[in-house]
Amino acid sequence: MPTALLWFRRDLRLSDHPALVAAVEAAGADGAVVPVFVVDPRLWEPSGRPRRQFLRDCLADLREQTGGALVVRSGDPARVVPDLVRETGAESVHVSFDAGVYGRARDTAVERALGDVPLVRTGSPYGVTPGRLTKNDGTPFKVYSPFARAWRARGIHSPAPRPDAVPWAEGLRSEDLPPAQDLDGTQLPPAGEAAAHDAWALFREQRLAGYADTRNLPGTAGTSRLSPHLKYGTLHPRTLVAEAEPLAEDHGEAVERFVGELIWRDFYADVLWHRPDTAHAAFNPDMQRMRYDTGPVAEEHFAAWAEGRTGYPIVDAGMRQLHGEAWVHNRVRMIVASFLTKDLHVDWWRGAVYFHDHLVDGDIASNHHGWQWVAGTGTDPSPYYRVFNPTRQGQQFDPDGTYVRRWVPELRDVPDRYVHEPWTMPGGPPDGYPAPIVDHAEERQVALARYQAVRDA
């Protein structure tokens, strides 16, 4: 009886799953498909508790969807996968292509350990697999806009059909799911494929029409909040594009901007594919010379930023949302990143790592390159002279203070005109809320001088 092994990674779903289709075809009418997830210590241990819990919940859903057939094993995949192949007699191992730095090395090691049993890569977590799009001269894109034009011109595949029936192998030994995590009050979104489709339907039917106007307003429910599902593949961007594009006739700008965000995700994955060093180093090597602060004062500033007590309400609200929901609105991610790097002069990488540790959607390509964009060190960067003014950003994108009041209860009774600059109130900010730890205007000049020094070097 032909047996195919389907190794789930960042594709924890059964619909629109090309590797699943390939595994079913390999098994044939009389064969069986072994569904497996390997809890890899090199990925599990560094993950923050929100991502661990969300992954656990996704696996629980996947086990239920497979009728209890999902096999969970722990250990080095280069040992676990070949062992399971020998145990089941599998003739092929099927995966979605992993473009990550560690994933590529891991898959090479697994492939070597499998010997004559092929590791078949079908599909990827992206609309366009990293490395597929290049400029006319064959070199990678370094700027988003031309990448986006090439992405749209190329197009992406239609969603893969879901097999009518999957002959899941039964009776195999499986470990328990990974342990539940103590989230200390952090509220995570529902996990799993059904939850992903519910979240997408809610956004598509109720919010997409206004997306172009509301996506930058953190006090409104204007974004899809699908990033955790894209991170773990409970929903594929192919599905989103296929179901969003028919709405473009009535909501053209909204659909274009939404698809544009999916392209940003593909772009950053492509950058990491070509430049794996950018997971920890500036894309622009000149910016490695940028001077950041260290020492006791810098550590105090970093702690104040992380704990949401900088005295700048929009910054503090964002950091408290990070701890409350393991997620932050995209506009606010940019604001808090700019504040850390350009007002507090702390290395972007420290902020990126802190976010990655606490986000439920933590993804190195999107997270780290987003930080580099704000810090002015990355590909297609925000201009070095652009320093987000946290007060003006709050006034522009949270004008009535809805977002700030939700996450900073000390300011709930502050009048609107003071909610983004409570230090200007008669008598200063309310009890329990700090005065600004730095003067934005002064620190902006420091940041500009340091950027200019790099440019002049």
Task: Supply database-style keywords.
457 residues, mainly alpha, Rossmann fold, Serine Threonine Protein Phosphatase 5, Tetratricopeptide repeat, DNA Cyclobutane Dipyrimidine Photolyase, subunit A, domain 3, 5-stranded parallel beta sheet, Cryptochrome/DNA_photolyase_1, Cryptochr/Photolyase_FAD-bd, DNA binding
What would you say this structure looks like, in words?
This protein has about 450 residues and is mainly α. It folds into three domains: about 5-125, HUPs (Rossmann fold, 3-Layer(aba) Sandwich), CATH 3.40.50; about 125-160 and about 190-275, Alpha Horseshoe (Serine Threonine Protein Phosphatase 5, Tetratricopeptide repeat), CATH 1.25.40.80; about 285-455, DNA Cyclobutane Dipyrimidine Photolyase, subunit A, domain 3, CATH 1.10.579. The chain contains 19 helices and five strands. α4 (about 75-90) packs parallel to α5 (about 100-115) and α6 (about 145-155) crosses α11. The chain is globular and about 80 Å long. One of its GO terms (biological process) is response to stress. Belongs to the DNA photolyase family.
Overall mean pLDDT stands at 97
Number of domains: 3
- The Cα radius of gyration reads 23 Å
Strands ordered across the widest β-sheet: 3-2-1-4-5
CATH fold description of the largest domain: DNA Cyclobutane Dipyrimidine Photolyase, subunit A, domain 3
The CATH first-level class of the largest domain comes to Mainly Alpha
List low-confidence stretches: none
CATH superfamily of the largest domain: DNA Cyclobutane Dipyrimidine Photolyase, subunit A, domain 3
Distance between the termini: 67 Å
CATH second-level architecture of the largest domain: Orthogonal Bundle
Class computed from helices, strands and strand pairing: mainly alpha
Number of helical elements: 19
Largest sheet: 5 strands, parallel
Give the helix level as a range of percent. Answer: 40-55%
- Total strand count, please? 5
The proportion of strand residues reads 5-15%
Shape: globular
Binding site for FAD: 211, 223-227, 258, 261-268, 361-363
Pfam family, one: DNA_photolyase
GO biological process, one term: response to stress
Family: Belongs to the DNA photolyase family.
